[in-house]
Specification:
There is one protein chain. By secondary structure, this protein is an alpha/beta fold. Helices cover 41% and strands 15% of the residues. The protein has 14 helices and twelve strands. The strands form two sheets. Strands 1-2-3-4-7-8-9-12 form an eight-stranded parallel beta barrel, surrounded by four helices. Helix 2 packs parallel to helix 4, helix 4 runs parallel beside helix 9 and helix 5 crosses helix 6. The longest helix is centred in the middle third of the chain and has 21 residues. The radius of gyration is 20 Å and the shape is globular. It starts with a strand and ends in a 6-residue tail after the last helix. 45% of the residues are buried. Keywords: Iron, Lyase, Manganese. Belongs to the mannonate dehydratase family. Its cofactor is Fe(2+); Mn(2+).
Length: 395
């Protein structure tokens, strides 16, 4: 298995030389500066690739192995195959990536909002901080800040009462910060930052789109793009919903094993793959992570390895240290290693330690939320230790 590291580009707080010091060898990156929906050019991809792969004398080689992500425009999620111009632009970006020899592309199909949290610096018992999704704070935002029509009917009387207490206890500054976290698009997001009025308009645009229709739109997208990927030797990997359940009354269709099975049955080509994210999938207690890894082993080209801890009834969760929480990382890695041993070296699974606690010196620094250097380094070291114990040292 190949050790990856997500790098947000030349403006990122973590430099490429610091990435080398972690022991990672494969870079996961994207052209975040390109507006969503505009086709990437080969020159733009090559410029980023050169920055990553041009190695200073005496330094370890880094390879850009995964694009995370080429964002899918909102029109594709709402219209499916009818969004022809947007799909053609996405294929053009894919072609630019393929022309530069980058073999894996990650994407997601979450409508309106990408990965969602309510707290970016939840203080853990160690003093390190983690990201958290607090169900009561989320309900307070949806019911009393966004004021989404119909939302009240989706909460119990007890949920609404607790959300009201939470909302009324918050200062204006706290409400503004919660709003910013939920609406402003977190790092790596493939959706646009939103104002509250803009958020409401987006939700209205999705009226009438249920899970069945959204899944059909994703299948239509895959039917258009998978042949282009397959012809160019690129693997597409769908990231799970985060969290893996409906938010804001919107359907989510990459949350369970059966969700993925439906997509692989509909578009069986090998290029239609999975980004196996243990953190996202692990939020659901009914997701058997080792079984999912075993079932979809041949489809897993890219893995996000992290852990989450469910709180209370499971609707609230926070990011755990990589070997803690509700993910049996040893069992997961046994399955991934078994699959990896069946592959040639150039087809080896790329994994990265995903997210990480903000700790030590990073508590005093400006860091990318979810992506501090030290917390991810701790996670990578722990994952590397498991792989060595399994007699499968990473490359």
């Amino acid at each position: 298995m190949r050790q990856g590291w997500r790098w947000f580009g030349p403006e990122a707080p973590v430099t490429l030389d610091e990435v080398r010091q972690t022991g990672a060898t494969n870079i996961v990156s994207s052209l975040h500066q390109v507006p969503i929906g505009r086709a990437w050019t080969k020159a733009e991809v090559r410029e980023r690739q050169s920055l990553i792969e041009t190695t200073p004398p005496g330094r370890s080689q880094l390879i850009w192995s995964v694009v995370e992500s080429i964002p899918i425009p909102d029109a594709v999620k709402r219209k499916g195959g009818e969004a022809k111009a947007e799909i053609e632009a996405w294929i053009a970006s894919l072609e630019a990536v393929a022309a530069c020899g980058i073999p894996i592309v990650c994407y997601n199909f979450m409508p309106v909002v990408d990965w969602t949290r309510t707290d970016l610096d939840y203080v853990t018992p160690t003093g390190a901080t983690a990201m958290r999704f607090d169900h009561e704070r989320f309900a307070a935002f949806e019911l009393f800040v966004l004021e989404r029509p119909g939302a009240a009917a989706e909460y119990s009387d007890e949920d609404r009462a607790r959300a009201k207490v939470v909302y009324e206890s918050m200062t204006e500054a706290e409400i503004a910060e919660l709003t910013r976290i939920i609406t402003s698009a977190l790092p790596g997001s493939t959706t646009e930052p939103l104002t509250i009025p803009g958020f409401r308009e987006k939700l209205i645009a999705y009226e009438g789109i249920d899970a069945k229709k959204l899944r059909q739109h994703l299948i239509e997208f895959l039917e258009a793009v998978v042949p282009a990927a397959e012809a160019r030797g690129v693997k597409l990997t769908l990231h799970p919903d985060d969290p893996p359940r409906s938010l804001f009354g919107l359907p989510r269709i990459a949350s369970t094993a059966e969700d993925y099975a439906a997509l692989f049955d509909a578009v069986p080509a090998a290029a239609n793959g999975m980004c196996y994210c243990t953190g996202s999938l692990g939020v659901r207690a009914d997701n058997d992570l080792p079984a999912m890894a075993r079932r979809f082993a041949s489809r897993i080209y890219f893995a996000h390895l992290r852990a989450t801890t469910r709180e209370g009834d499971g609707r609230t969760f926070h990011e755990s240290a990589h070997l803690e929480g509700d993910v049996n990382m040893v069992a997961v890695l046994k399955e991934l290693v078994a699959e990896d041993r069946r592959r040639s070296a150039d087809q080896s699974i790329v994994f990265r330690s995903d997210h990480g606690h903000r700790m030590l010196d990073d508590l005093q620094k400006n860091v990318t939320p979810g992506y501090p250097a030290i917390g991810r380094l701790r996670g990578l070291a722990e994952l590397r230790g498991i792989l060595h114990a399994l007699d499968a040292p990473p490359t």
